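Protein chain data
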Amino acid sequence: MEQGKQKLLKDCRVLDFTNEMGFLCGKILGDMGADVIKIEKPGGDESRNLGSFYKDEPDPEKNLYWFSYNHNKRGITLDIETETGKDILRKLVKDTDILIETFPPGYLKKLGLDYKALSKINPALIMTSITPFGQTGPYKDYKGSDLILTAMSGFMSVLGDSDKPPVRPTLPQSYMWIGMHAAEGTLMAYYYRGMTGEGQQVDVSGQAGVTWAASIAPSFYDYNKVVPRRSGCFLTGRSITGAIMRAVYPCKDGFVTYIIYGGPAGIRTNQKLTEWMDSKGMCPDFIKNKDWAKFDIATVTQEEIDKLEAVYGAFFLTLTKDEFFQGCLDKDMLGYPVMTAKEIMDDEQLKARGMWKEVVHDDLGGAKITYPQFFTVFNTLACGFWRRAPRIGEHNEEVYGEMGLTKNDLLRLKKANVI
């Protein structure tokens, strides 16, 4: 931690009972300095069996997905379906600020551990409940995976090519939206408690959270009076003629993003690209002679767009991504390279901001794994990477010792399969 800085949530304790739908929520709180205690069933969380694994060796202790979303957490095991486990949780809750969970609605109530019951023990407790469809409504008892939530939120309807079925992002992106919104709601409740002393339950619906990912669709309709449809790497709704416009082009070593704009920014960019192509002998007369000040993107025809894009596409194929991006910077025009994961890791801007942290994993034979740091830099507060993800029950002795339990107590509880 940087000298002179303190953790943003340094005095906040969190109990994390989440599956992959809520991992990110706990991680964000941990990144901000909260003492997040990840609680798994004895033997480990089922999500530890999700891919991918370090060196492709299926092992719950080598799960890269687990590493990614559960660092900055301590880890204990506890079976809250046992009476002893329930008693232990009640004792933990006394000194807890936030509890986050992804159990089905009604599950904790059956155990006598719902918000109503736990808030009697700790009235200042904040419980964030994250479920596919929320705690109320006709869908509240439905199960929901990333695929289901991406589809039922409407987000999938605008993803993919127009002549093919809808698609979902390869990685479970919906869980990231849900975890982000859950953390936002939790922090709002925590701030409110700081002003009033009151705890409360935060009810997070996965479907509602992912719906925000499609928030561009309503504004698109308001502006164009047309329901947005899948258009792949093309843009629609920018012309009253119905013309569609390419946004992604292949180049020498990958892809670049270039859009034919209108307005002042478009005038400058279109003219700069014209001059750039002309300097390479690749600009036909119909583009060199075009008066970009009179170019109207709203009334452009598909024929004109196709002619322009054919010339642009041929020019971009002569450039690498770096050459394209540097040209855009030098000429003060709009255009961007499409970065790969490796290129993001090597990006000088992210490196300069300390985005990456190399962590030695002694449990993996001293292997070094690079993690992203917190995306926001504070002037006087510290947020970042504090500890790798916990092994199964790694902090049982530490956390339960803080409650006054001895090693003999833990042996007895382990033998009874409580921890």
Remarks:
- Residues 6-213+353-415 form a domain with the Rossmann fold fold (CATH 3.40.50.10540).
- The chain has two domains: 6-213+353-415, 233-338.
- Residues 173-196 form the longest helix (24 residues).
- The mean pLDDT is 92.
